[in-house]
Amino acid sequence: MQVNLNADMGESFGMYCMGDDEALLSIVGTANVACGFHGGDPTVMRGTIALARDNGVSIGAHPSFPDLAGFGRRFMAMAPKDLEAALLYQLAALEGVARVEDHAMTHVKPHGALNNAACEDAELAGLIARTVALFGKDLILLAPALSELEKAGREAGLRVGIEVFADRAYTETGSLVPRSQPGAMVEGAEASLSHVTAMLDAGGLVTRDGKVLPTEIHSVCVHGDGAHAVAAARALRNGLKARGATLAPLDRILA
Prior knowledge:
The protein is of the alpha/beta class. Helix content is 40%, strand content 18%. The strands form 2 sheets. A 7-stranded parallel beta barrel has the order 1-2-3-4-5-6-9.
């Protein structure tokens, strides 16, 4: 069993620190690096890429709506041409810095409200996927399992990395249980490990009611901004390895 662990990184900004990227980069195989529109700045971006390179961690762009004040968590109604341009701007920023640091950008994973909306909105998902393909047909689109974004990526001719979340529960339709509802979060390292291994063993999403929704699973997202995030990520990595999983960067799994 081969699987990838990914985490969102490079989201610190100026004097504001978000997460322990240095510690996480010794645990995960793939980093989704903020491009400045929801978090991150040029110095943080460059430092994160260099640390990822030194740890053998693959990197991708983590673009968002232009919502720095809201950390990219607010939906923004944008004209398609404006959103396309904003995405291209962010991809170009990360790719340019990565080239200077001699570490290739291999994937794209939308952030926050952009990602959430694209999971349900086929038109938005199509715009994102076509924009990624326009920038680079060889890029991987990292998309939540059974989402409109996954479908759009395939339709755009991209390699699609299918993602599940270690710390989120799933509804009977395969969407994430809203955070406002009880049981939305899978709390604790052991519970997260059980949640992930159950999905890998079943070959699909396991809903809160125990139903299995078949899907490939390439990558597991671990969040890095909680108080116990690093310990939870380490426990998940060690637990998966103990169960015989081979952990690798995303681009190797989808090679």
